[in-house]
Amino acid sequence: TVDGLTYAIVGEGEAALVAVSPRTLAGGLVGGSAGSSSGADGAEGPDADSDAGSDASGAGEPAVLTLPEVISYDGSDCSLTAIGPRALAGCDAATVVVPVSVASVDQAAFEGSSVASVEVADGNPHLSSYDGMLFDAGLTRLLLIPEGKQGAARIPKEAEVVDPSCSSHSAAVAAIDVEAGRAASSSRHGCLYDA
């Protein structure tokens, strides 16, 4: 456990996020608005934590949890490459920023959390985000909708596949809206249909 985040070593120099401590938000590791500079730029280290802590004092600003690209523990460094099932359970940040090093996110990673939006750092070769949802790098496959997302979920025209269970834990999503020009499917009255 480092800075309120618990990891498992999954390979040589690689780690997976497996849990977020309920004290993470109280400890000042997250803060600021979704558009703040402590977001998708992948900032990490002591300066990033102090910036996030100072932002946390801002009243009414949505909290942002920026996951580190590298975890240093006991003299060793590991790259964060995966986010495991229910890893963010109990996390009440509004937005979670996934670093460029993460190659996989379990479909149940956000189960039990109130996270409303996922952002993927620019340059990630495996993942991307659109409208707060997680996609593969080319925006061709919708992988998951975070449990706390509300209102409409907008699907980009590039998307070819929507995994059937991607919205199984997002009861507050009221409608699916497909961007015009998408050949694989369409939406009507908030429902998703095949072509």
Helices, strands, pairings?
Elements: E1 5-11, E2 14-20, H1 23-26, H2 46-56, E3 64-66, E4 70-73, E5 76-83, E6 95-98, E7 104-105, E8 117-120, E9 127-130, E10 133-136, E11 141-144, E12 151-155, E13 161-162, E14 173-178, E15 185-188, E16 191-194
Parallel strand pairs: 2-5, 3-6, 5-7, 6-8, 11-13, 12-14
Antiparallel strand pairs: 1-2, 4-5, 9-10, 10-11, 15-16
Mean pLDDT, all residues: 81
Share in β-strands? 35-45%
N to C succession of SSEs: EEHHEEEEEEEEEEEEEE
Low-confidence stretches: 31-57
Largest sheet: 5 strands, mixed
Number of strands: 16
Distance from N terminus to C terminus (CA atoms, Å) equals 47 Å
Q: Over the alpha carbons, how many angstroms does the gyration radius reach?
A: 17 Å
Helix content: under 10%
Helix and strand content put the structural class at: mainly beta
Assign an overall shape: globular
Please state the oligomeric state of the protein chains shown.
Answer: single chain
Total helical elements: 2
Can you give keywords for this protein?
single chain, 195 residues, mainly beta, five-stranded mixed beta sheet, four-stranded mixed beta sheet, 8% helix, 37% strand
